[in-house]
Amino acid sequence: MCVTRDLSDLLNDAKDLQRGLGIVEKNAYNIFDRLRISTEQQTVNSFANVNASVDVLATITNASKIQNSQWDAKVLSVIAKSTSNLLNGSLNDSWKGYNENESLASTYLKAIEDVINQTYLPTGHTDNDLIQENVQITIYKGSDANSKSINSFKVNATCQSNSPTVQTAIKNLASKLPNNLNKQETDPSDIILSVIADNCNKIKLELRKDRLPNHEMYCVFWNFSTSQWSDEGCKWGGVDNPNICECEHLSAFTILMAKEPIKLLYNEELTYAGLGLSIGSLTLCLVIEFLVWNAVVKSNIAHFRHTVLVNIMVSLLIADCSFLASPTPSSNPSNWCLSLTVMKHFCYLAVFFWMMCLGLGLLHQVIFVFVHLRKKVYLGLCFFLGYVCPLIIVVVTFISHNNGATGSYYSTETCWLMYKGVLKGSIYAFLLPVFVIVFVNMFTMAIVISRILKPTLSEGSSHDEKEVARSIVKTVVLLTPTLGITWILGLFMQMLDLTKQPYAQIVNYAFTFFNSFQGFFILLTGCFGEKRVNCSLNMISNDSVLLAGTFSNGYWFSTFQLLNIKQYRLIKTYSCLRHKLR
């Protein structure tokens, strides 16, 4: 490997000092100043020259240890400049050597720490900042019982020490070190913070790193013996203090962020199982509505309710199918992923707007008992809210996010809307309307429950109180799936980061369970939970059995058997009417 003459001579002079040919204390400034000049030259842009420059730092430091001597603090100004020059962006490729197993960056970091350790700092030394583009060396004098708060490159370090404290902040070095922790790939902070002080047993660090939601952070130090990051003795401040680290020792620190978010065990499997069951349940529910429509829709109120339910089912069915169609977006074409995102955005919004129509209809029925809704007005309003409003939201969101551009409107990794931070990203064009509707429907449910409670408050009967309690439970169970109340868990999901264990995990699993199985719950409460639907289904079922038994006798189909069928229908109709009157 070819090295420039200046660096070659400089390295030889440092090796002479290491062999004892000269006094380090007298020659240190000259060596470091010549290194500064050499690293400012354009000819340094090769691995051989960068490696030689780092060797100069390591060699002269070793020579100082051998001679048991230290150099004056004035050399730190030229050290800061020369070490900063080596980290300029133009030299990034020059750090890549022929042998990837040996880390030049680790040697560089060790050399800087050793250089600082070999610097003599008297007790009365004044505070000083040596600021360069990529390296800042900050010196704080000793102060009894006072902590040191060091600020450089927007990072802070605080420790208890009576001796001078030297902090070195280094930019553009972390990316040159192996960025994994316990075989997990991580994304490092831009800054490595090295703190040197005597009698400092515990240090508090503030390291800047933008954290993505549900991504774990690790406070680490560089372990020179293993040549890798280690979190031993360091503790992360958690989601409430994401940039804070506390460590029980001094070293070169940084903060790492996991490249992948925390994944909940079996959460995806639960989601797809629930969606599959929901799709089957919604299909069955639509078939049931088709079979019993004429039997159960006998009034305007029944017509309103079942019309809204059918539209909720259709919208949710299409949305769930679109969700299942995009489990592996990496294998889907970009246009297909965009189409699925738009479809899910529109259909899920339509589900909630139709749920709001159901809630408003129920609210009107409870409050204005003697004022009947006009069929055309109510259905016209429902179809406007159910389909036109979601369409307007989707179109405006699509256009305002670069006409549906990737990374602006949707993500190709999830085939869903983008989240870019608190109240940032297209996802809020879905979340905000949903949460508003959920709160409106929760208000509706509260009004219904208050109406149920009124007779009990006036009568004060213990028996009636039990009946009212049963009625309240029944109301909550029947209305929760069709009004989308379980989606309130989504609000808590946005508030709780997955690093907050175990509360975030419990909320996430609950949200996944209730909302992926929503179609199944609608089948139970919206179809099987209605007595008139059950009566109609029983009549259809028993008619089929009687007819099958009758036709099995061939041509012996008598008038007596027909009368039996009609008699059975009358009995079932009377039974259903009794249930209705109750």
From TrEMBL:
Protein topology in the membrane: Multi-pass membrane protein
GO molecular function, one term: G protein-coupled receptor activity
Domain GAIN-B: 126-263
Protein name: Adhesion G protein-coupled receptor F3a
GO BP annotation list: adenylate cyclase-activating G protein-coupled receptor signaling pathway; cell surface receptor signaling pathway
Residues of the G-protein coupled receptors family 2 profile domain: 267-530
UniProt family annotation: Belongs to the G-protein coupled receptor 2 family. Adhesion G-protein coupled receptor (ADGR) subfamily.
Organism per entry: Astyanax mexicanus
Subcellular location(s) per record: Membrane
Lineage: Eukaryota, Metazoa, Chordata, Craniata, Vertebrata
